[in-house]
Amino acid sequence: MAAHNELGKWGEDIAAxxxxxxxxxxxxxxxxxxxxxxxxxxxxxxxxxIIEVKTRQSRLFGAPEExxxxxxxxxxxxxxxxxxxxxxxxxxxxxxxxxxxxxTDSEPELDHIKDVALI
Length: 119
Hints:
By secondary structure, this protein is an alpha+beta fold.
C-alpha cells in the first residue's frame, strides 16, 4: 500500500475511534458507489452523519479540510444522495469533516467540523 494510502487509513481509524468515543454508531466505512465513496457513515442520536476524513502529516500546505474543493464536494453530494436513496434514509442527514494532522509516530491533532454545507 502506498504511504499516502497508509496515512489515510490511519487517519480514518483515528476518526472512527474518536466518533465511537463520542457515542456515534459507525454504519459504514469506505462505502463505494461507482466512482464515488464515503469515508464514514454513522448515526449520531437521530441523525445520519456522513464524515469525510482528511489526513495530512503537517499543515505545511494548509489545513487538510482545505483540500475539499468544489469538485470533491460535488462528488460527495452525489455519493450522499445515492446512499440516502439506496438505503431509504428517513432521518435528518448531516455532513461533517474530520481533519487529522500528524503521523503514526506522534499524537495526532483532530478537528471535528460539524454540519458543513456541501455546495
